[in-house]
Write a structure and sequence with these properties.
By secondary structure, this protein is an alpha/beta fold. The protein folds into two domains: 264 residues, tm_1862 like domain (pyruvate-formate lyase- activating enzyme), CATH 3.80.30; 79 residues, Arc Repressor Mutant, subunit A. 36% of the residues lie in helices and 21% in strands. Bound molecules: iron/sulfur cluster.
C-alpha cells in the first residue's frame, strides 16, 4: 500500500489518493482537455506517482484500490501503465521529475522486472534528474534479496515498508500477510542490498490495541534505526470487514482520548530517538524527510499514472478510475476539476497546517493578494488563546494541541475568512 495524495492517510499514507478535499467529489468534467494544456516554463518541477493495484490478499481495514488474486492481469496492467506514461512524454518535456513514488497495492508483490521496466521506460521518456527521489512501497512479507537487487539497479533509492505493528496478534487481526519478525528481516535485507533511506509505516488506534502494545511497537521500530516513520491512526472505512467487526461489537476501537494519548506517545518517543515530526503523521531524522510527500503538502504539481491515481497539473485536478477493469478498458482522467482561488486557499491552508513548517503568510499574500489575517483576526486570537495555533517568523503553525483537532482549526480559519 502506498500513499498517493492524501490518504491512505485517512488510514494514512501518500497523499493523492483519498483526501476528500484533494479529490473532487463531483464527477463534473470540466476544464481543458489535456491536449490543450499549455505548459509551464522550462524546468518546472513535477512528481510522478505510479499505482500498482495488486495485493496478495485484502487487509481487513483496506478500502484502497487493491486487487488480490489478479496475477493474470499483471502483464496487461503494466502494458496499459506504460502506454499511459508514453502519452505524457511530449507534455512533460519542459518539466523536471523531482520525485517518483511507486505505490499501491503492493508493488513488491509483482515480478520485480515490471518495476524495473517501468523505471527504465520512465527514465527514457521523461526528464528525470540525477537526484530524483524514487520511492518503492512494499510489504515486508514479499521482499527477497533478488527483488531488492533488481530495484536497486533500476534506480529505486527509497523504500517505504508497511510494517503497521510489531505485535503478531494485531498484525493477524489486521489481515497483514507478514509477521513482526519479517519486518526486521526485510530491513536487514534492504540494507544489505544498499538501501539506507527506508520508511516504516506504523498504525495505532487499532481495535483492542493497548498503550503498552503501541509503546512496544514504537520501541521495536526505533530499534531498527531506519531514518523515517509514518504513524497513522486507523480509520475504520465503511464496507470493510473491519467496519463490520466494529458494528457487531467483535472489535472495539480506542476512544478519542486513548487515540490522542497514543499519538502523543509517538511524538515523544520518536522525538527522544531523534526523529522530528515534520508533518502530522510523519517523522524523520534530519535530511530524510520524504520529498515526494512534501510536494503534495506544498501543493506542487504531480502526475498519477495507473488506476485510482490522482493528479494535479497546471491547476487542474483529475484522476483515473479506481476500477481495474475500467482502467484496463482504457478509461482515463474521469474527474476533471479546474481549481478556483477559493479551492486553492482551502487546500493551501489544509495542507500547510499539517506540516511543522506551517503556513507561509507572506506567500499567501503574494498568491492571493490579501493578508491571511484579513477578516480572521478574532478567530486567530481565539485559537492562539486556546493554545491551538501560534504565529512566529511569518508562519502560522498548529501546536501539538491544535494538530489533534486539525480539521476543526482549519474549518474555523476558513469560515472566518468567508
Ligand atoms: S497491503 Fe493491505 S492495506 Fe495495503 S493496499 Fe494491500 S490490502 Fe490494502
Amino acid at each position: 500500500m502506498g500513499l498517493q495524495p492524501l490518504n491512505k492517510n485517512k488510514s494514512r499514507r501518500d497523499l493523492s489518493r483519498n483526501s476528500s478535499f484533494l479529490i473532487p467529489h463531483s464527477s463534473l468534467s470540466f476544464g481543458p482537455p489535456h491536449s490543450s494544456l499549455s505548459f509551464g516554463p522550462p524546468h518546472s518541477s513535477i512528481s510522478l506517482y505510479f499505482h500498482i493495484p495488486f495485493c496478495a490478499s485484502k487487509c481487513a481495514y483496506c478500502d484502497f484500490a487493491s486487487y488480490p488474486g489478479r496475477e493474470g492481469a499483471w502483464g496487461r496492467y503494466f502494458e496499459a501503465l506504460w502506454d499511459e506514461m508514453a502519452g505524457w512524454k511530449e507534455r512533460l518535456a519542459d518539466y523536471e521529475i523531482v520525485t517518483a513514488f511507486i505505490g499501491g497495492g503492493t508493488p513488491t508483490l509483482v515480478d520485480a522486472g515490471y518495476i524495473a521496466e517501468t523505471l527504465r521506460r520512465a527514465r527514457e521518456m521523461l526528464p528525470f534528474r540525477e537526484d530524483t527521489e524514487i520511492t518503492l512501497e512494499g510489504n515486508p512479507g514479499t521482499l527477497t534479496p533478488e527483488k531488492l537487487a533488481i530495484y536497486r539497479k533500476a534506480g529505486v533509492n527509497r523504500l517505504s515498508l508497511g510494517a503497521q505493528s510489531f505485535d503478531d496478534g494485531l498484525l493477524k487481526s489486521l489481515g497483514r500477510i507478514h509477521t513482526a519478525a519479517q519486518i526486521g528481516e526485510a530491513v536487514a535485507m534492504a540494507r544489505k542490498a544498499g538501501f539506507e533511506n527506508i520508511n516504516l509505516d506504523l498504525m495505532y488506534a487499532l481495535p483492542g490495541q493497548t498503550m503498552d502494545q503501541w509503546q512496544r511497537t514504537l520501541d521495536a521500530a526505533v530499534a531498527l534505526n531506519v531514518p523515517h516513520f509514518s504513524a497513522y491512526s486507523l480509520i475504520v472505512e465503511e464496507g470493510t470487514p473491519m467496519a463490520a467487526r466494529v458494528a457487531n461489537g467483535e472489535a472495539v476501537i480506542p476512544d478519542d482520548e486513548a487515540v490522542n494519548a497514543m499519538q502523543r506517545e509517538a511524538v515523544s518517543r520518536l522525538a527522544a530517538a531523534g526523529y522530528g515530526r515534520y508533518e502530522i503523521s510523519n517523522y524523520a531524522r534530519p535530511g530524510f524527510e520524504c520529498r515526494h510527500n512534501l510536494v503534495y503538502w506544498h501543493r506542487g504539481e504531480y502526475l498519477g499514472l495507473g488506476c485510482a491515481a490522482h493528479s494535479l497539473v497546471q491547476g487542474v485536478r483529475f484522476s483515473n478510475p479506481a476500477s481495474l477493469e475500467d482502467y484496463l478498458a482504457g478509461a482515463r482522467e474521469i474527474d476533471r476539476q479546474a481549481l478556483t482561488p477559493v479551492d486553492e486557499m482551502e487546500e493551501t491552508l489544509m495542507l500547510a497546517t499539517r506540516t511543522a513548517r506551517g503556513l507561509d503568510l507572506a506567500a499567501w499574500r503574494r498568491r492571493f493578494g490579501a493578508p491571511f489575517e484579513a477578516g480572521r483576526q478574532p478567530a486567530i486570537a481565539r485559537l492562539q488563546e486556546g493554545g491551538f495555533i501560534e504565529i512566529r517568523d511569518g508562519f502560522l503553525r498548529l501546536t501539538l494541541r491544535g494538530l489533534e483537532v486539525q480539521d476543526a482549526v482549519v474549518l474555523e480559519l476558513l469560515e472566518a475568512g468567508e
